[in-house]
Design goal:
The structure holds two protein chains of two kinds. By secondary structure, chain A is of the alpha/beta class. Helices cover about 30% and strands about 25% of the residues of chain A. Chain A has an eight-stranded mixed β-sheet with strand order 6-5-4-3-2-1-17-18. Chain A has an eight-stranded mixed β-sheet with strand order 7-8-9-10-11-12-15-19. In chain A, helix 5 runs parallel beside helix 7. The radius of gyration of chain A is 20 Å and the shape is globular. In chain B, a hairpin with a 5-residue loop joins strand 4 and strand 5. The chains are: A alpha/beta, B alpha+beta. Strand 16 of chain A pairs antiparallel with strand 3 of chain B.
């Protein structure tokens, strides 16, 4: 466990009170090890949904860690686990999460339920090659677990109700039929050629396969944008069959990037000045959100939060033996620690009779205006 | 056992070998052992078995040979055997270098640029469970052979440590070695398709 993570785990558990039976909660967790996000939602009466997964330095799924910290039994109380797409930053630990959540159904994009995708996953991941995980490995483990327990999964596509329980409805608004077809045409590239080496499957594939979720619980409506990029949002807006009620909470898609911003979404699918939250992302020298992304979001709403602040791209390395550090310096290799700060944005509201969201920033989470501070 | 035999020779101080030489027994070839043995046989033949072979545990090997010699008659060895044989040619002493790792990572490649690549690293020395570091590695840090293996998702080992040469010199080194990964076989592809169809059947009863 990295030294930073111990403090992070303590900071999130410093506010351990669970929501009341009649309280809705949406908590956005992340990032972990440079990237990754997960959302947990309390839909009343002690029932929970989990969307995506990321892990801590010990490989423990963050949503499990959070739920247990507030006294929730994931095995009994989680009813649905959704993988919005199979990119590393959204599914690390999701197989373990699903295994722990024995009462939960699993939901992912229908496009992943194809012989081509599953064959590629099996051919590439049937033998472990490296200690590092990958999105494809997670999906392989998920489908293996589903096979073992003969659990039927729910497959998301445009405008499909994927879950309902009492007054709670969960709809998938994407991926669109066009994205599905495009994926089917391109999935052949995933299938390895005979003789190709079994390297770790790099993160690839389009964000257009992301599952956007629209969730209603009484008067409360939230929109979870996954990593869907602009063309996908245009498809959603065109659809006349989607639920039309507007949301008061928006999980900003794709870490606030410009390519996932569609102004019409803000006009037609969200209340004016909604509560919004995002997780940062960084790989190599690239990071999201950028300064202009933060400014754009703040121009649309002041109720904007990030699960952590921006971490400088300057190297921050773990302490090691002097001989090792000297060699690293002379090698020209620059190293930086991924265990950047971790936090959570928590929104709660009574299911009936309350209009305002109560917001808590846990750990390194903060208001978006303080993102670069 | 060859090493035990040589150790016995040293204890009796008759082969002129030093203990440090024997410590490097892996580098001593059979011809040297044969030469030592021929000297022993010659010495035993000259001075008599009883003077060189007190009956104790340490020289059990000598006693056996002496007894065997008696069975042959006289000293048990012919004159030519008693004289030292010509010095056999020794194979060159191959200096062995060793690497003492101070720090090891396993990494996989996430991005490749014109002059460097980005990789995520798991600290094997610290027994880390997940990737906790990211490295920007100049392409010049890897060998030409490894450069051919550099692709997104390629897996490598990075070791920093001390390399000790056979001559005893010691230097700090940083080594990146890409793994030769198993290749996808025709049966992997066929098994993958069969697994996929079975999975879909189980998930959509």
């Amino acid at each position: 466990m990295g030294p930073g993570n111990t403090a992070i785990a303590q900071s999130l558990t410093s506010a351990p009170e669970p929501p009341g039976e009649s309280e809705f909660e949406l908590t956005l967790l992340g990032p972990s090890n440079g990237y990754g996000e997960s959302i947990v939602l309390h839909i009343g009466d002690g029932d929970w949904l989990v969307v995506d997964s990321c892990i801590d330095a010990n490989g423990v799924p963050r949503p499990i860690e959070y739920l247990e910290s507030i006294g929730v039994d994931p095995g009994r109380q989680v009813k649905l686990v959704v993988a919005t797409h199979w990119h590393d930053d959204h599914v690390r630990g999701i197989a373990d999460l699903l295994t722990r959540c024995e009462n939960a159904r699993f939901c992912c994009a229908a496009a992943l339920r194809t012989v081509e995708f599953l064959a590629a996953v099996q051919a590439l991941e049937s033998r472990h090659l490296t200690s590092a995980g990958s999105g494809v490995r997670e999906m392989h483990r998920v489908f293996s677990a589903l096979r073992e327990h003969s659990n039927a999964a729910v497959f998301a596509q445009t405008n499909k109700r994927v879950f309902s329980s009492g007054p709670c409805e969960v709809w998938s608004l994407s991926p669109s039929d066009a994205a599905f077809q495009s994926f089917i045409q391109s999935v052949g590239a995933l299938i390895p050629d005979k003789g190709q080496d079994k390297r770790r499957v790099p993160e690839g594939g389009p964000n257009s396969l992301s599952v956007v979720l629209w969730i209603r619980l009484g008067d409360i409506i939230v929109l979870l944008g996954a990593d869907l990029e602009r063309p996908g949002w245009v498809e959603i807006l065109r659809s006349g069959e989607r639920p039309m009620e507007i949301a008061s909470v928006f999980k900003i898609p794709h870490h606030g990037s410009r390519n996932a911003h569609e102004p019409e979404v803000w006009r037609k699918m969200l209340e004016p000045r909604p509560v919004v939250a995002l997780t940062p992302w960084r790989r190599g020298g690239r990071y999201l959100p950028k300064n202009e992304d933060v400014e754009r979001i703040l121009s649309l709403t002041q109720k904007a939060y990030a699960s952590t602040g921006h971490v400088s791209t300057a190297s921050r390395v773990m302490k090691r033996a002097k001989a090792v550090e000297r060699t690293m310096r002379s090698s020209g290799i620059s190293l930086r620690q991924l265990t950047m700060s971790y936090g959570a944005v928590r929104l709660r509201r009574n299911i009936k009779g309350e209009r305002e969201w109560r917001t808590a920033t846990l750990g390194a989470a903060r208001h978006l205006r303080d993102y670069f501070n | 056992m060859a090493v035990a035999e040589l150790s016995t020779i040293v204890r009796h101080g008759k082969a002129g070998a030093s203990t440090s030489t024997l410590d490097a027994h892996e580098a001593i070839d059979d011809s040297f052992k044969q030469y030592s043995n021929s000297i022993q046989r010659a010495l035993k033949g000259s001075f008599g078995a009883s003077r060189t072979a007190p009956a104790n545990e340490n020289n059990r090997g000598f006693s056996k040979r002496t007894n065997a010699g008696r069975e042959l008659g006289g000293s048990g060895f012919s004159l030519s055997e008693r004289l030292p044989q010509p010095l056999p040619r020794l194979k060159p002493f191959r200096a062995r270098s060793s690497l003492h790792a101070l720090q090891e990572w396993e990494g996989y490649v996430t991005d490749i640029f014109d002059d460097e690549f980005v990789a995520r690293l798991t600290d094997l020395t610290a027994n880390a469970q997940v990737e906790e570091e990211e490295a920007m590695i100049p392409l010049e840090e890897i060998s030409e052979d490894d450069a051919a293996k550099l692709r997104l998702g390629s897996v490598f080992r990075w070791i920093i440590g001390y390399e000790r040469s056979g001559a005893g010199t010691k230097k700090r080194v940083s080594q990146i070695v890409f793994r030769d990964l198993p290749v996808v076989t025709r049966s992997d592809v066929q098994d993958g398709k069969a697994w996929a169809r079975e999975t879909l059947r189980l998930l959509n009863p």
